[in-house]
Amino acid sequence: MHPHHDIDYGTPRREAEQTVTLEIDGVAVTVPAGTSVMRAAVEAGVHVPKLCATDSLEPFGSCRLCLVEIEGRRGYPASCTTPAEPGMKVRTQTGKLAEIRRGVMELYISDHPLDCLTCPTNGNCELQDMAGAVGLREVRYGDDGASHLDAVKDQSNPYFEYDPSKCIVCNRCVRACEETQGTFALTISGRGFESRVTAGQGESFMESDCVSCGACVQACPTATLTETSLIRMGQPEHSVVTTCAYCGVGCAFKAEMKGNEVVRMVPYKDGQANEGHACVKGRFAWGYATHQDRMLKPMIRASIQDPWREVSWEEAIGYAAAQFRRIQQKHGRDAVGGIVSSRCTNEEGYLVQKLVRAAFGNNNVDTCARVCHSPTGYGLKQTLGESAGTQTFRSVERSDVILVIGANPTDGHPVFGSRLKKRLRAGARLIVIDPRRIDLVRSPHVRADYHLQLRPGSNVAVLTAMAHVIVTEGLLAEDFIAERCESRAFGLWREFVARPENSPEAMAEVTGVPAEQLRGAARLYATGGNAAIYYGLGVTEHAQGSTAVMAIANLAMATGNIGREGVGVNPLRGQNNVQGSCDIGSFPHELPGYRHVSDSTTRGLFEQAWNVEISPEPGLRIPNMFEAALGGSFKGLYCQGEDIVQSDPNTQHVAEALSSMECIVVQDIFLNETAKYAHVFLPGSSFLEKDGTFTNAERRISRVRKVMPPRAGYADWEVTMLLSNALGYPMDYRHPSEIMDEIARLTPTFAGVSYAKLDELGSIQWPCNAQAPAGTPIMHVDTFVRGKGKFIITQFVPTEEKVNRRFPLILTTGRILSQYNVGAQTRRTDNVRWHDEDRLEIHPHDAQERGIADGDWVGIVSRAGETVLRALVSERMQPGVVYTTFHFPESGANVITTDNSDWATNCPEYKVTAVQVLPVAQPSEWQRRYRDFHDEQLRLLRAANGVAQDEKAEAGHAGL
Ligand code: SF4
Ligand code: SF4
Ligand code: SF4
Ligand code: FES
After folding, report:
1. C-alpha 416 to ligand 3 mean position (Å)
2. Beta-strand runs (E) in 749-865
3. Which of 385, 437, 488, 747 has its CA 20 to 30 A from that of 896?
4. How far apart, in whole angstroms, are the C-alpha atoms of residue 383 and residue 743?
């Protein structure tokens, strides 16, 4: 299937109860009221020529190609801007219309280069198609008149190019940037013949506000805006629908291919999570998959001081298995464990936890959700009964009030961010609770009604104070609560939050939020209509992360904002498959489907299916693994696709723990930070190289489809199988679909899921079973999953991480649009053009006090460690709070973060670290050691394979 051959209905679908019946070229057609004549015509099988219309954008009516005749009306109305009306008789093909259309095309073509044969979009150009469709045969205007043929190209963006000579000023790009993306970076400047598309104030695309989402490129009907990869490689010859491997939005893409090579990624119009939109990562940053740093050969070594030795798969797997068995014989069954990656597929995660439980014989398995959304799992399970978000993304279109807390969707979840902004532009109200002034607070045509700029670490105080206002001002949804929630727990909670010490006035001191603002926000949330909460790691990664999640669920229950469209509690998941990795049993205490290992019935089920005995004891969590390693009782680790050294807090502690172990097996696509401590390296496969599924933040299971063979020979699930077989526990799957069948057989919420059904429905939101054969878009509709909803008391307890004279500032962390987490992928793409180093954001006041200017090197010291970054002086910060991203290993952001963690789940408290910031002249001691160790490890790698490593890409800041 080629994108070119997808049906374009010309104007967006309208949803209306009323329908309209009209006649087009003699064919009767019935459409929802508000549908354009153009779209109705397509429904009737008639394609009216068009240029400025496309069904992802509101009609504009500028090209005049889509004119039609309507009985009883004068003139020739544009079919894209004319709504269908009952009884209309439309004619789309008459001699007169043909003549007008040819005239229009002639004008366009006379000012268009006639280089079709060498044009990159040759064969996939709407202008070319339309010239054919209207039967254009000659162009009467000579080439002596004024034209734009020598206009200069803008090649500033690494991923697409703008060639104004080919622009027909159809405005589709401008509308795409406004309507779809919500960035408003483009305008049509000049009038009439002089008019042209410009980015920003006549700047280049790179200098403008453009965020390189590519929506304009996709919308452009000509070769004016074109992907550089397409220019380089030519038109694709086949395409495969798959799912983005970056964030938890889970956008569907068509990978457009030439043989085994990706030509471009085009967001899939029928993708239910993204509906044809994408961000700079998913659409453009896929080049890492073929980067020269990819590790393609298995390697082993006895100690991390030894050079790596390239070996066969057989030898590497055999060596790893022998080491694990040796360790278990010497140090006991529990001395080894595994880590499931939230980057890998459900099927792969399932196999890793199965290997740990069945082949290792313990429950020492955990996943990186530990360090991000484990409090979500815990908090939502306690209150609502299910460890997942309650809505579809589309549900936001029905929200009247949107509360965003501890999340930065325009950077972290950009495609959902665009959707959110669209709803806000249409009139929904917005409450932002965040220490920083994130973009949502003020962006084009979006203004937050409230920005509660709280002190990091005071979420629970703010949320409980909001509940106080709702309870004491009589804003409770009494009927909902009486019918749907446990009354005793509610009574206790009501009494608790109503206490004066939980009032906004009393809490203002710790939260830093003026009481009146907080009251206003609470009133708006409770009374503004459908209210939805979206939250992220700014809620979970705290000492009271689980408490804050429960406080959020309490608010939703207290106001009846749960169980229908437009409302709900929605964690924005970080990694592509963090929801899935939790679902399929990667926690040490839970079998797939969140069922406790101590539950003998569930265990019995798995024991029978797997033909082994499963330990009833919960295993070690990631931080406990480190503790046990330092204590000498944990010696072997199978780590699939996760970089714990860079992503877990207190790097030095993690490194020390790993250094004390005897066999670390790292399976990854790059020699990541953790691999520098490894003894066995097993090359991984990227999402382009395997089949499987990812589950996004909406509980949506989507297919990942192989578009090229695994570069190192095996997909990750095959490698786990090899290892299990070598350990003596047989696994024999021929295709990931068989693994999904096993998951479905053993997990009630997945009972109805199969690859066949996924192919049929496109994607499925779990639970999917006999009661919900097509899945469950909205949860807790009539009752809560746990029966009655349970209010839980959320006593604010300040974190132990306190500021004092030595550490007077609070450091909090986050992500940026163009980079992704530890950056292993995005750093190996042109996305570094937007962000090539992590910086420390600091308020001008704090900067000035310390004599720090923008761009200066500053040392950041915490109780855990010290690192050096460059300063970015910014009013987005509040005084007393500094901020950084953590995309570059040499930044060492996690050298500073501490061992503090959520009381319930051990999720690290990344978001609050007391620090001091001072001007410095040189890298930190840690950074110097890091550099030496890094260089040494690269040397040991080169010894193995002589592969040219791109040292420049690895070396990071020249200035350090
Ligand atoms: S790439 Fe996206 S943000 Fe940039 S101009 Fe195009 S639509 Fe706007
Ligand atoms: S750049 Fe493309 S989409 Fe934008 S106005 Fe020109 S032809 Fe239309
Ligand atoms: S929003 Fe997330 S899933 Fe969608 S393209 Fe961007 S990174 Fe990929
Ligand atoms: S397509 Fe209707 S005016 Fe351009």
Report:
1. 9
2. 763-765, 809-814, 839-842, 857-862
3. 437
4. 26
